[in-house]
Design a protein that fits this description.
Length: about 250
């Protein structure tokens, strides 16, 4: 039986809690967080605690808090023998260096509250300061996921950057598209099959080989028509930056 304490009450903490509690070989010993209202989410299935000086003993201490709070929360675990691991994408493992057994337990996925995630398909990125800690973190990760990777702190930083481009930036593009549809009495549902097909092709092919559109083919007439329709200055700026980047890459710039 693997005993786990989760430190944090936000998005990732809730998703990890949900998946851990579905397995009989994982026990959530305690969830610790300062927000007593947020702790209500966990109370029915485990003990909760707002006092970080009253953390119970466990095999794993999973820190799932905001990036800026990781090091502070870790400081309350200095006397614990279990493995201390954080879930942040951009924070190096060295912030946990004062703990004899420490590592990374990073699920590479986007999480939204109250929206379930198929953890079996979530890549789990693992790093640890010792081989023994790595084996144990992988043991925990392999229970919830079918894809577990050894990833260094430097590689994880690059993965996090990649995720921002692919997920966060593309989602902002969806927002712009939704805004254009709304202002022109169009249902955003019309564009959803295109979103799905684009994502599907992005997983099946090298993205460079499937890029299409006016900038890719150097169609300046269409580009000018697009620009004339964009009234929002920020949207126009984004359109120009991305269009120019594609034109430059493919030698279409005049």
């Amino acid at each position: 039986m693997l005993q786990v304490v989760i430190l944090g009450t936000g998005n990732i903490a809730q998703h990890l809690f949900n998946i851990f509690t579905t397995y009989t070989n994982i026990t959530i010993v305690q969830v610790v967080g300062r927000n007593s209202k947020a702790l209500e989410f966990f109370k029915e299935k485990t003990e909760t605690q707002t006092n970080f000086n009253k953390i119970k003993n466990a095999d794993f201490y999973i820190i799932a808090v905001s990036d800026s709070a990781v090091e502070e929360v870790a400081s309350f675990l200095k006397n614990k023998n279990g493995i201390v691991a954080h879930t942040a994408g951009s924070i190096p493992m060295k912030v946990l260096q004062y703990h004899p057994n420490h590592g990374i337990f990073y699920p590479l996925q986007t999480f939204t509250k109250n929206y379930p995630v198929d953890f079996k398909s979530v890549p789990m990125c693992i790093e640890a300061n010792t081989n023994e800690s790595s084996i144990l973190l992988k043991k925990l990760a392999n229970i919830i996921s079918d894809t577990v990777y050894d990833v260094t702190s430097e590689q994880r930083k690059k993965l996090h950057l990649t995720a921002v481009f692919i997920n966060n930036f593309s989602n902002y593009m969806y927002q712009i598209g939704s805004d254009i549809c709304e202002k022109n009495d169009l249902s955003f549902d019309i564009i959803k099959p295109l979103i799905l097909e684009t994502a599907k092709k992005g997983t099946l092919f090298n993205p460079e080989t499937i890029l299409t559109g006016p900038a890719r083919r150097g169609d300046y007439k269409t580009i000018d028509i697009h620009k004339s329709q964009i009234n929002n200055k920020e949207h126009l700026k984004i359109y120009n930056v991305i269009t120019d980047a594609i034109l430059n890459k493919y030698g279409k710039k005049l």
